[in-house]
Amino acid sequence: MNDIKTLAREAAFAARKTAFAAGQGQAAEILADYLAGQAGRVLAGYMPMRTEIDPLPAMAAHQGPVGVPVIMAKATPLRFREWSPGARMVEGAFKALIPEDGAWVEPQVLIVPLLAWDARGYRLGYGGGFYDRTLEGLRARVPVLAVGFAFAAQEVAEVPIDATDQRLDAMVTEKGVTVFA
Questions:
Q1: Spatial separation of the C-alpha atoms in residues 117 and 123, rounded to whole Å
Q2: Which of 11, 21, 23, 92 has the highest count of CB atoms within 10 angstroms of its CB?
Q3: Is pTM, for the whole model, over 0.85?
Q4: CA 25, CA 23: separation in Å to the nearest integer?
């Protein structure tokens, strides 16, 4: 399965790079509109890196606490530190920006980055398993809404999955919203 996922990741990086070059369109506004129904709930977003689609405008528009992921250690769930526009950011693991300080929050809604996604609601991540572990742990305790955010061009016929992969509840792209049953 690792070889299959490695090849899928290579193809997905290329597709995302091409889509990124074409522009993000109305993606952030579509995401913000979709998340408007989640006002007051704790939202976790992410700090975009390289060619990831940018959720920051939707995060800034959220009416409620917002956190960003912090990698604590390899093969562990993510934790989330409270973020707001203008927060002082420092480099964390894998060069991801994280708030220098702030409260730890437990998200009820997660904006999930990805390399590829399919019509079943599965996503292909970077291979560390951080979001899968996080979603599994959160879902064991509280209802959590997992919203993938990516370019429409990142959709593939079928994401290779294994037993630990967690499904998304919805997918938002520059072309609209897909809710998975």
A1: 4
A2: 92
A3: yes
A4: 6
The residue to which tokens 């894998």 are assigned: 94
Sorted by where each starts, the structural domains of the chain and their CATH numbers stand as 2-179 (3.40.50.10420)
pLDDT per position as a tens digit, 3-47 = 899 999 999 999 999 999 999 999 999 999 999 999 999 999 999
Cβ neighbours for 118, distance < 8 A, ≥ 6 positions apart: 155, 156, 157, 158, 159
Measured between alpha carbons, how far is 62 from 127 in angstroms, rounded to an integer? Answer: 29
Residue 159 to residue 181: CA distance in whole angstroms: 17
Task: Give the Å distances, CA to CA, from 103 to 61, 83, 84, 119, 176.
Answer: 19, 9, 11, 36, 33
Q: CA distances (Å), 19 to each of 8, 16, 23, 122, 177, in order?
A: 16, 5, 7, 20, 17
